[in-house]
Amino acid sequence: MAFDLTDAKTRMQGAQDALQRELGSIRTGRANPRILDRIEVEYYGAMTPLNQVASISVPEARILLITPFDKSALDEIVRAINMSDLGLNPASDGNIVRLAIPQMTEEGRKELAKQVKAEAEKAKVSIRNVRRDAMDSVKKDKELPEDDARKAEDDVQKLTDENIKAIDAIAADKEKELLTI
Description:
By secondary structure, this protein is an alpha+beta fold. The protein has two domains: 93 residues, Orthogonal Bundle (Topoisomerase I, Chain A, domain 4), CATH 1.10.132.20; 71 residues, Gyrase A, domain 2 (2-Layer Sandwich), CATH 3.30.1360.40. It is built from five helices and six strands; from the N terminus they run αββαββαββαα. Helix 1 packs parallel to helix 5. The longest helix has 35 residues. InterPro entries: Ribosome_recyc_fac (IPR002661), Ribosome_recyc_fac_dom (IPR023584), RRF_sf (IPR036191). Its main location: cytoplasm.
């Protein structure tokens, strides 16, 4: 009788996905539509994600172009971007919103690199918590023979190591992207 790792795999993958979402919203020196993923616009009385009320394109390396599907949402889009913590100033011409992504300072890049490391560490802690829960489940399973229990613990540890390595790679890629001018 083998131990089922499906729950642990799913939860560890969830931690990786959460890290990628979190890092995707960190602004780099280049235009990336994902920095707007968390922005919600009040649209017909309901808070709606920006990407559901407008198309977002990257015409140049440091410019985002936001084209609302409904022109009446333009002012709300500008207001939502101004209220966000991105520190960007939208420019509207009545039909579209332009977002110029300013060049980042070296100090700003290093600060964001620290934030990337902190987010990666949170994801690693989450994965270690999943490992702990899985190990506890293995120990509590009295029907599992000792050899199978030891193999299950090894499998959990191997899965943990793979996920930690993947998180390190994700964080290293984002840091490289941040520190590249």
